[in-house]
């Protein structure tokens, strides 16, 4: 026998005439006409409890109720009087006439009202337990749970099994910074918390487990951005004996299943876009397709203009010149343009050229712009034709190294596309916009280190027929790698892996990782590949990010019960904290700056 | 399209006449009468593949196959010739006549035969990937997965939601030793890996999540025993608004469900035994009820015997004298008794008195024993009557501090009960023997520190009516704590928690934890209790242990994909390992003994 018969939020008109016992928290108490009304709250919602003075013992208790008291109510479900129903609540047609009332636990006055919408994040994280009582947070975490459960059900039905991989693992100096854990047993040795189970899941494929998944914590000790946490949760998946297309199909179905089951949303078909096309059109490998703005390539026609700002990048290898046409954008004011100019500088742009198209039929004369005078007629014609400009549009220009152009104009595209103008003019479509980005390059050249780096990771397989490019022309080599993008966020990504040792060696060669170094760092994987490793591949989804998107939460911290701040602190428990000297001694370490503590 | 149409192990006679495509590993190749037979293996089992020389291209490939090659086979399913079927295999009635054969990946010769039963653990853990290919390990990990999935389904149906709690949390100096993680951002500060999510799950109850669970890693940096790992997995559960009885009922049903769904085992009813009774009868709080041996209490009748070994403990407060009667045990030899004597010394016993009952009707004269001469007639009579001794039995005695007696004779009970004699004489019943042990004491007295410690943890609620004992007589105070025991292993344990701040304060008083100290260590919990914390309780199961029991694995390491050794090392990846000086500098720590690395 539970202390209750029903959840508060689930008492409906089906129970009229029945006696129920409810437990929950006083969300609000109102006194009205000598009667006390209590909005009682639990995980499932609210119910209205009515306390009449004709039961004086019970009424006396009701009079002492305050917000957030935890109480038990026994009473009769009855229809609310006409005109007092609340269609926003499942229980909105009924109320519970209280017969017995027990205070399970009183509450001191909370430091804030639970329905206060203007709390600072510091307040919310410091008093996280009360913050977590808010329906907003409860809905977020309940949805997060339902997402994981639907993922598990889908994967179970498709033969995937959850296998745990170690949390105390080996530090690898590549990639992001590791969180280290000193060993007590092995003086001077350290474990690392995993950045991902990548190598272990590949080992499980070699070991014949066929289909693996795990919803697991990963760790990166990086400087935090708004959507990053030191510990984050990954839906990590790997399968044997499937090719790239089948892997993508399967996990498209998985995400589609999750959206349908948890939100009743149909994601529809996922477009598939090569990386090169995404960069060409949107300057981004995770374009937000809700924004109906595209780059127009102009590099070729700007080579011989008198305007150095354009002709410089256009004639320099690795340079790029593009336009971004914003239909109806001529109403953007000078001060807004100035603000955009400052904005693109964040991404390395030196400025932001623009042309307002007042009258496209008038050609050069119909254009308003500080730069038109520097462009010859052929360039003007090309700009207008290629962008398809119409009267009333504005064109913005990016001209720099391709990376700067892509980053700056890509960011501007989103800023405008998510703004008021775009919503008003239909340039922003309010929908779910999923997308596969495929055919990523295997390698990117690191200008500083003068070497090729792996774009994904060094275990990613090259496309069939691209194996030989690894020696001769690494920059041309395309990988069997894919990212799933939703509304401009990378939801997940993965690749077909290399399963043959000799291909793996070629990749290490291209990356200038010596056989000795490779053996030292990844020896256990290389060894495993020798024993009949199966063809395999997989991917990983960021759960925190997925749920943030689904709930439209303001921050990733709103879908995590106990998150860290951007200074990597837990304000609730005050972690990290100083520890005893004895603990440090046992771990064979000492502080560099004892005075810092 | 997958590279295969079916799993090898699941090709049955239903598919006779169909063409199938299979992927797997060569488990064995036999040449017989000019034909090559391949036992092909995957996660789901074996299938026999027949390669006829009349397809020479395919046959040439088959001739080069070696063990552990990863291959793809396309062929026709046909019935095996009469007399060659194998009833041990699902696919034992059929074979696949190979039409096409592709080597997906060859294998070098493995360092051991996969079916070698005599591998050292070091070999197995060093070559874990090959070890994990063995059907024994695959079955263990598949069962582990099915257990977790059935747990999740059960909990989902009962309204429990999985909520993640932090891995990077606060160090608490109590309890087991923490694994520490130095903070880069906060000089001199450390996170700790969680020993359990205990405080967080209680906070989630206070926050109104109502029913929580998590299958999560926990960490203890303790010296390892056979059934311990530095990181282990806990099925962690908490609920609001249920009392002790309902919590036990629910989780008894959960474990019953898991055994039924995954092993088709009916666990039957769980006996419920108070802690005091378990200690009285078995000297253990996790008695193995398959062993039909019980202690006989003799303390009272040994007070005035001439034998100091007995009368000493019998007249000392906290002393205990018991007999353990082993029916049919008089055949135990002197050398076996000597071995038992050495065995009980491990547990602190100084020796092991014994009496062989050759002829119970003859009284003293029918007894064979070095100690009988020291016991007066009343003592002899009491021993024979209380133990219910019969001719052919042996009685062993424990006399010491109660803890030593319980530990030593409890261990002896198991050693004899699990031995050959017990199996032969029916003293050991080969069955599943579940049990609830309840009514644990709240506190135990620490003789060294001269203070009371919490038996479970300081958040455990006292039984109703025992609150006042906390001041006056802590030793009498019984807790709402319970352990689930199976075959002598503690599967899980938990308690109803304290939900009222004033009761929590009383417990801290009894434990001599000052209000300031309590605030410092558990302040965030104490704060939370003030805001209408609901009545709540829960428990945690050790997943590794549960699966070890279910699979009858020899070691907990056989149900974990990538375990640590007893020296807390991962032999596969060679973790822990030395790290770069740069990493240490960033973490504001240095090694005490740089020479150790």
TrEMBL record, chains A, B:
Q: State the superkingdom.
A: Bacteria
Annotated positions binding ATP: 220-222, 229, 490, 542-545
Feature type site, description Important for tRNA non-discrimination: 32, 83
* Example of a GO biological process term: aspartyl-tRNA aminoacylation
Residues that, per the record, bind L-aspartate = 174, 220, 456, 497
Principal EC category: ligase
* GO CC annotation, single: cytoplasm
What Gene3D superfamilies would the database entry show?
A: Bira Bifunctional Protein, Domain 2, GAD-like domain, Nucleic acid-binding proteins
For this UniProt record, give its keywords in alphabetical order, as a comma-separated list: Aminoacyl-tRNA synthetase, ATP-binding, Cytoplasm, Ligase, Nucleotide-binding, Protein biosynthesis
- Ranges for domain Aminoacyl-transfer RNA synthetases class-II family profile come to 141-563
What CDD domains does its record include? AspRS_core (cd00777), EcAspRS_like_N (cd04317)
| Compartments it resides in | Cytoplasm
Q: Where is this region: Aspartate?
A: 198-201
Q: What is its EC number?
A: 6.1.1.23
The residue ranges crossing the membrane are: none
The UniProt catalytic activity note for this protein reads: tRNA(Asx) + L-aspartate + ATP = L-aspartyl-tRNA(Asx) + AMP + diphosphate
Molecular function terms from GO:
aspartate-tRNA ligase activity; aspartate-tRNA(Asn) ligase activity; ATP binding; nucleic acid binding
Q: Which HAMAP family match?
A: Asp_tRNA_synth_type1 (MF_00044)
Similarity annotation: Belongs to the class-II aminoacyl-tRNA synthetase family. Type 1 subfamily.
Function (record text) = Aspartyl-tRNA synthetase with relaxed tRNA specificity since it is able to aspartylate not only its cognate tRNA(Asp) but also tRNA(Asn). Reaction proceeds in two steps: L-aspartate is first activated by ATP to form Asp-AMP and then transferred to the acceptor end of tRNA(Asp/Asn).
PANTHER family linked to this entry = ASPARTATE--TRNA LIGASE, MITOCHONDRIAL, ASPARTYL/LYSYL-TRNA SYNTHETASE
State the oligomer form and interacting partners.
Homodimer.
Q: What is the protein name given in its UniProt record?
A: Aspartate--tRNA(Asp/Asn) ligase
Q: Which organism is it from?
A: Ottowia testudinis
Q: What is the lineage of its organism?
A: Bacteria, Pseudomonadati, Pseudomonadota, Betaproteobacteria, Burkholderiales
